[in-house]
From TrEMBL, chain A:
This is 2-hydroxy-acid oxidase. The keyword Flavoprotein applies. Pfam families: FAD_binding_4. It comes from Azorhizobium oxalatiphilum. Gene3D superfamilies: 3.30.465.10. Residues 1-183 form the FAD-binding PCMH-type domain. The keyword Mitochondrion does not apply. The lineage of its organism: Bacteria, Pseudomonadati, Pseudomonadota, Alphaproteobacteria, Hyphomicrobiales. InterPro entries: FAD-bd_PCMH, FAD-bd_PCMH-like_sf, FAD-bd_PCMH_sub2, FAD-linked_Oxase-like_C, Oxid_FAD_bind_N. It comes from the Bacteria.
Automatic annotation (TrEMBL), chain B:
Residues 51-229 form the FAD-binding PCMH-type domain. This is Lactate dehydrogenase. Its cofactor is FAD. GO terms for molecular function: FAD binding; oxidoreductase activity. Keywords: FAD, Flavoprotein, Oxidoreductase. It holds the Pfam family FAD_binding_4. Gene3D superfamilies: 3.30.465.10, 3.30.70.2740, Vanillyl-alcohol Oxidase, Chain A, domain 4. It comes from the Bacteria.
Amino acid sequence: MTDVVKVADEAGLVEAVRAAIEAGKTLDVCGRGSKRDLGRPGQTDWTLDLSALAGVTLYEPEELILSAKGGTPVAEIEAMLKERGQMLAFEPLDYGPLLGGAEAAGSIGGVVACNLAGPRRISHGAARDHALGARAVSGRAEAFKSGGRVVKNVTGYDLPRLLAGSYGTLAVLSEFTLKVLPRPPMEETVVLPGVSPEAAAKALSAAMGSSCEVSGAAYLPGPVAARIPELKLDVPAVVLRLEGFEPSVRARRAMMISVLMPFGGVEVVETAASPGLWASIRDVRPFVGTGARAVWRLSTAPAAGPALAARLAEQFKGETFCDWAGGLIWLLMPGEASEADKVRAALAPHGGHATLVRATSAERAAVPVFQPMEPTLAALTQRVKASFDPMGVLNPGRMYAGM
Amino acid sequence: MTGLRLPEADAGVLARREEIVAALRGIVPGEGVIDREREMRPYESDGLTAYRQLPLVVVLPSNTEQVSQVLRYCHANGIRVVPRGAGTSLSGGALPLSDAVLLGMGKFNRVLDIDFPNRCAVAQPGVTNLGITKAVEHEGFYYAPDPSSQIACTIGGNVGENSGGVHCLKYGLTTNNVLGVELVLITGEVVRLGGKHLDAGGLELLSVIIGSEGLLGVVTEVTVRLLKKPDTARAVLVGFPTSEDAGECVARTIGAGIIPAGIEMMDRDAIAAAEAFVNVGYPLDVEALLIIELDGPEAECAHLLGEVSAIAQGCNATTLRVSNSEEERLGFWAGRKAAFPAVGRISPDYLCMDGTIPRKALPLVLSRMRELSEKHGLRCANVFHAGDGNLHPLILYDANKGEMDAAEEFGADILRLCVEVGGVLTGEHGVGVEKRDLMPEMFDEVDLAHQQRLKCAFDAEGLLNPGKVFPTLHRCAELGRMHVSGGQLPFPDLPRF
């Protein structure tokens, strides 16, 4: 049985980590528990529950900054931003439904620790690109700060960005400061239906290489498109999102239609339906409700994406779709087996990495969940881990076996 | 070099200079090793010219294998290494040490791959920032970060410093525009981080390499994101009776959901100096001048120019000009871009500071700076990246009148003030040697120890660019010490620091 240590402030966090070190125990760092099945299955002694370490501590809309304690619900932050016409521009995906949990249940610490991003990744970056400052407690049971509360800062190493994507293996986020941005007043989606993967790659490249300022670009094969109700389609489609001030969106829609002319006729999804469409793509909704079938997330050079996605679907008898203009491939396997070696072998010629985001814990324990690294990089990664957490107290084994 | 402490030179290394030069010639043949004093002179300083020091020897490798061998040799022999790009650092990041090899990356000057379908380019670190844009602009693309030294500064140096520019509120800093690097560690080992895909995977090491000021490794290849050039860019030039009004205009613009491509502010002294130098028609009867640039589709620019103009009028603007041609827009910028040389004309010497503050603190900071100006008996002109809060106060002094110490003290007071109001020591120029000793104003011992242990993970002997960024050199063993009263060490195969 696992002991739960619940902390409500940074001093408590320091105490909890110190207690674990002294007792020779390891900690499962847990914000609100929505992504516990992401990563390698834990073999930890105690659960460090951060749900009471919550609250927005600073929000200055005109300075474009927001600070919140690690366990603050993302939903609370997003609601607060929405009220002032702002947003987390990296559009964090919600893993809840895909992993069989509740919707909108995650914490901001979890969003940052997993460096989440949605379709807007292509134009606005991931969580780390909005990281300004951090207060955190390392595996040495020491509280430290890094970064600041201003959007332009090169004072010292960029530890807030390092902590983003470290899955709680380096330090526990006590408070994080993010850059926030105005929410675009209008969005709509241009749809190019009936395209082959090859044509899709070319259309995506043309759209992204235009000055249309696309903020969402996906390729959806027929069966996937059919599961997104807003689309009313059952053929493969390229979908492109335009956001901004109304005169700008209208001008870019016209520009986009002419850019896509060589690839066929387009349709426009009106403003009302567009957000739902992109939420589906962001949260991998087309693959929700498929039980414990393995799901991969592949990051690769965008131009290779659609064709690679088609090959993966065929090779594994699974399903795929692409976000990030082709650079992000979601792969649903036909069963619980992850076929890790074969998936990574198929990706290898194009570069990038593959992460097993959903699988049974037995499967996640049996294969590398994160892309294995070259020995030099693996050793460097180990040294960085040890510099923050020499005893291996924080989320041991969550990313890599033995780290 | 008055007042600047640098790590004590290693007498053993100095004594072995001939042997070291010979070994380096064995790795980098011909003119790639420079050991004559006269030929090393150009390397004795960077953009922070107040400090000068000849290196032990200059090495100019031309491929990754040579960099790897040079670093492996230096590592094996306990020799310090100072990496250098174009030497445009304003914080002394590339200042040589008397017992260190200066590793110049200037021969890495090729763009290796331009990949329009993936909207990225792979460049060697010695390619200039503008060189990347020049290589891709025929297809309408560009590389977004545009530090004012972009004609000379290199992409490798930009990675080292996480360089910004006037457009970074909208387009981000170097760190938001680099997809991958090839990096040589001090041991000579080569690692690749990221590539043409959007996220590197694994720990976000790329993010600490960017802005690490040459302390973690030597970058030998950089993959950057390319953007399509916006269809239109237009600017509006607005004069205000007070800096408070100008600050209010910036706040209301952003509050209205508008993120301009750039917002620059100049104060009365800076306006006067720039106008006298380039004559572009800046109003001389205002306390603050804003240049607000909007880019994107023509319809968007037209719409936002209307919005911004209305906001400016509502903030007591006394003059307002909208650019109606590319020539006029560039004219608005000409004065701002010439601000540094313009100030150079009215003062024998000047010191350029680089703090960032929360925008709302601007009026307070400007008034406190006027008090500091009186206290130190020196004038100060201000240019300000108003969109992101990055201040560039230019302190005017005359070194021949012995005013340098006062100027440095004035500068330090300004940076302390930035930290006091919730800002930071450096927005884009880096810590280097210039702001090194002010680091404790912002970070306590524990904060700094977490940063320095990261350095130890990359460079356990502290051979890469020592004396920069951190005010105290700690041995890694001392930093790594940890008291353990129970439990077992979980990494038995790892060497303990």
